[in-house]
Amino acid sequence: MKGPQEQYTNELSRKFGYKATWLPGMPLRLGDIGILNNYVYTPVTTLEFFQIPFEVREDDTKDDLEYSSNGQITITSKISGTVSPAGSTFTNSDAGLIVEFSSQNSIFFKANQAQVILINNTNKIGEEIIKLYEEGKWNKHWVVITQLVKAESATILLSNSSNAKIELKANANINSSNLDIADAQFNFSSSFLKGLETKIIAQRGLTPLFKVKGLRNRIFLPPSFIDRGMRAFDLVTPETARSKYKDEIYFDFINEDLRFKPENV
Questions:
Q1: Is residue 264 part of a domain?
Q2: N or C: which end of the chain has fewer CB within 10 A?
Q3: Has residue 265 been placed in a domain?
Q4: 3-state secondary structure of 210
Q5: What global pTM score does this model have?
């Protein structure tokens, strides 16, 4: 069975085409440099440290993003003045939401007013990074965050049991039958909690999704090399990047099947 971080990052990547921040509440910034290993991004330094400037562009549109593991999550709304569901901690006067999970590692994700921000001049940045690598100043396994999804507010839940449950009581003085689980205006608090691995409730300013670029190569490996467990990038050193493979190294998006290991150049 997949662990929670692999389950979370895989499912959100398939849904949105972006990598998922793990842990989900970790703040990320454009220009952060780090390592991707076992589905997790670990920050190391920044483009600013290398004095590499970059231009930022923001998407003019904002969208609500939502995902839940198929058939494994139910959400029940409780309106103030109605009878509480059997077994609930809510009183009749309470308003809130009850979220129940039927499977371990089930995911609920909702990000409100999500906006894409990105680095505009990645070609120029790539040229600078290749120079740094040729000078022995860049780890070839480092990646740069070049796109981020910022959410005005977001709720992220991940179960660690097949009967996980959370009851979220709305504490704001709002008379609404349309409670939004990711909307911070409802000021939700947890009145009951069982079996959750991760619980982020209507938190503002999250960066839950991102894309990275890093060094890649066009080097062809014969089968005998692959049989020995070698990768094309194992052949690349700062010296060969300046000579033999000078035209084979480029800067581009890193895909899931190109996970870099945190080893030294």
A1: no
A2: N
A3: no
A4: strand
A5: 0.90
